[in-house]
């Protein structure tokens, strides 16, 4: 039989890696609670029009990256390629946008049929934040300030920069688009094939081209900033003044367009040059038109999504993971002899009750003292507890310091939990 393997571009998170994910997720969860955001969980599969209508027919995602299939009743369904459209669908369907504001976040797997490489996968994870019902630049600023705080908490703030742009109102964009198409049409033969095609489908996306020749051509092209309407200019100024007030620095990049059609006014990306080509770790912006596009009442909205794998790669590249993430235990219990085997489970249970914040691992599978101590060391535990015949007879436990040079002591079982709590708090 052929070997069964996972799917290309879809990765397992193995036991040795999951602590890193949880580390990041815990920091994000705590931080979003600090700002009063609530989690939403939506299905990974939606009816295809949620994305084709939401993201836009002529975007890369919809044109060539979606996992679309018919279910058994012939409905066209798609695995979500991003989180915003499904989130908006859920908000509308459950009536959560009428006369109220929402600040929500989500995390989960997204699916895009892309060429797998470092930082780019077919199943990947995003943590996203969305807000609804808020028009002013203060909320745009809050989202950016919140991400800046997150980078600090993760120790990567020195390696990311904020790129900022305003995409204007749809009217301003239409005018600009016409000017851009004019300019590019007269130089069409110098454009790469992809950009030539986009000239008629989605010309603004050409600004995002990675082709150096196209980029050179664009340096002379009309700038979106010169076509901005008054309202968008004011909104942008309101955003930048707040970022200034909070000490968040940014680069205005008039060529920053996002890969999804629904953005207007604010667009931003956090980029790094520590990850090679896959340098965008977080991107977002304002999408005041999307709710209506998906059948709801016109509702202002702004949000962003970050790529979890890319953030993990960046934290790793910068050596910012806490050292003890690989440990599985604070305390490892070694067991010598039949009698100890008999008491170890109830004794370990008692310790877990008395010291609920400690990870207490009892040795399984027998074996000699040396082998057990080797396992204790490998677990990362600060202390080994040793239970042998003498200890069972006296209801005592031997406590051995695995990381420092404290003398081995024997303590009554009843005192062990407290001893460990004070010692290990001191270590941490
Ligand atoms: P890129 O330009 O790198 O393709 P994008 O503009 O398509 O990114 P978004 O749709 O804005 O990305 O998604 C937000 C974030 O999700 C990105 O900034 C990135 O960190 C992450 N991301 C997007 N696609 C992938 C992927 N295929 N694999 C891993 N992470 C991804
Ligand atoms: Mg992409």
What does the model show?
With 428 residues, this protein is an alpha+beta fold. It has 2 domains: 15-168 and 228-317, BirA Bifunctional Protein, domain 2 (2-Layer Sandwich); 331-421, 3-Layer(aba) Sandwich (Rossmann fold), CATH 3.40.50. Helix content is 40%, strand content 19%. Helix 1 (15-34) runs antiparallel to helix 5, helix 5 packs parallel to helix 9 (230-245) and helix 12 (338-354) packs across helix 15 (413-427). Bound molecules: adenosine-5'-triphosphate and magnesium ion (MG). Magnesium ion (MG) binds at residues 60, 259.
Which keywords apply here?
alpha+beta, binds adenosine-5'-triphosphate, single chain, 15 helices, Rossmann fold, binds magnesium ion, five-stranded mixed beta sheet, BirA Bifunctional Protein, domain 2, 2 domains
A few lines on this structure:
The chain is of the alpha+beta class and 428 residues long. Helix content is 40%, strand content 19%.
Q: Remind me, CATH topology of the largest domain?
A: BirA Bifunctional Protein, domain 2
Instruction: Assign a percent range to the helix content.
Output: 40-55%
Distance between the termini: 50 Å
Mean pLDDT: 94
The tally of beta strands, per DSSP, is 16
